[in-house]
Amino acid sequence: MQVPLYQAKAEFFRMLGHPVRIRVLELLQNGPVPVRDLLADIDIEPSNLSQQLGVLRRSGIVVSIREGSTVSYALAGGDVADLLRAARRILTELLAGQSALLAELRDTGQPSESSAPSAH
Question: Angle 34-40-43 (CA atoms, 0-180°, nearest 5)?
């Protein structure tokens, strides 16, 4: 029995739903990165990074590249980088809207100095 597309999408987003995995994908946007550099950029235990890289590798989003004793990871395709850029645009719009609402609340929620009761 085939999984419905909406369910496959939900599983895909669930797989992305870990901060370390998102950070790894961000770091890989400009090309392959050795594991030692990922460890230097992400404050995480090596075993935990290895576990998260395994999840991404099994999902097919990243590939590992071995050159001698160095293992690097790279995005399997450019679409993931496009998805991360789209997420950044969406978050920027959401936060800009929240910032505007916060400014409006601050402007309308406090009495002006001229109408504030005096403390004499």
Answer: 125
